[in-house]
Amino acid sequence: MGQNGGKRPGAGRKPGSKTKATLEKLKVQEAFNQRVMAKADALFNAQLTLAVGSMKVFRIDETEGEKGKTKREHVHVTDADEIKALLDEHDGANGVVDGVYYYFSDVLPDNKAIDSMLNRSLGKPTEKHEHGGEGGGPIEIVVRHVKRTSPA
């Protein structure tokens, strides 16, 4: 009578081969890595800007609101020519250009970005974990010896 089941020679996936799901995952990961590598310089610059902080320029636009009240709106300025006009006229200080008030605002450094940049360049620092017993004292380990008796 023959056997059913069990190990059969030549059956199953070959050692070291990958499943279809794993191959698909690797394919997607490679495509993702290629996209990231293509933007590596821009990503580095963005993270560096977060790590060291930056400045933003704002313009105060005034409009007449309801009941004749003046409404002031703080607008983030991104136009290079507009920023250049402010810098040329006020040497990097707040001021009025063509009747419109401009000011600078600091964007503080981001500590996570700083940590990330340092870890990438210097290596992640080792972490120490201390373990202690009650009150911070040593951990007490009790070893009990069990005398074995052989069966009669």
Task: Classify the secondary structure makeup into a structural class.
Answer: alpha+beta
| Quaternary structure classification | single chain
Number of strands: 4
Q: Overall mean pLDDT score?
A: 87
Cα-atom radius of gyration: 33 Å
How far apart are the first and last residues' alpha carbons, in Å? 43 Å
Helix percent reads 25-40%
Give me the side-by-side strand order of the main sheet.
Answer: 2-1-4-3
Q: What does the largest sheet look like?
A: 4 strands, antiparallel
- What's the number of helices? 4
User: Strand content of the residues, in percent?
Assistant: 15-25%
- Note poorly predicted spans: none
Keywords:
36% helix; four-stranded antiparallel β-sheet; elongated; alpha+beta; 152 residues; 4 helices
Give structural notes.
This protein is of the alpha+beta class. Among the domains are: 20-53 and 110-125, no CATH class; 54-107, no CATH class. 36% of the residues lie in helices and 20% in strands. The chain contains four helices and four strands. Strands 2-1-4-3 form a four-stranded antiparallel sheet. Helix 2 crosses helix 4 (111-122). The radius of gyration is 33 Å and the shape is elongated. The relative contact order is 0.10. The model has no long low-confidence stretch (mean pLDDT 87).
